[in-house]
Amino acid sequence: MPDYLLFLALLPGILIIIYIFRKDKVEHEPVSLIVKLIVFGAVSCIPAIFAENYMTAIMPAGLSGVVEYAVYDAFIVAALCEEVCKYVLLRIGSWNNINFDYRFDGIVYGVSVAVGFALLENILYVMDGGIQVALMRGVLAVPLHAFCGVFMGVFYGAAKRYSVGGRGSKALSCKVMAIFVPIMIHGLYDTFAMIGSTAATVILLVFVVIMYIVAIKCVNKFSREDAMGGFYDYTMPLSDLWRNK
Questions:
Q1: N or C: which terminal CB in the chain sees fewer CB atoms within 10 Å?
Q2: What residues form DSSP beta bridges with 102?
């Protein structure tokens, strides 16, 4: 693989990690921890591949239409398998870490794992497709994984906060949302991409633009409120996660 292609494959993920790292206002997470989570994200590709192969093998025979096949392949084969595997490695790599003490840390960790997954996946795709694939995935697929990491991290951080406060039911609901919301985002993206029609492509591009806007606003909001998101103050209702103070 030429050096310039490797550079293009890695650049989007590196820029995203730097952006999120700089948004961590209260205390930067250790670089060693971020690197570990990026590696964990790449490792999560392995069980995801096995899970995707299994889900493909048991695909219902009646899925003959383009839309039906795309929905199953997008939500069950790709989104479900990949996001669950990323969450499991995120949980293993960070839940009990002593540095996990602020809500925004969840976003840093979630994005790190997501980018680790995206980097390995991107290298494999770029090796096969060349510079055009590198440029297209750099503005679409890699940020898509980062979007999923942001929203996984929002709820993951909230889950840890509630868990520290002994509010098990709230923590559980946030853990569920940390998986469910990324699956929905990922599934919708892949569905439009797999359909491939002109209308689906337009919808996909609009969806990506909306995700850019929402994700950036979300990161800015929680970065701005990071000092108020420590786990010593765990009484905030889940609904208040999205309201400005």
A1: C
A2: 230
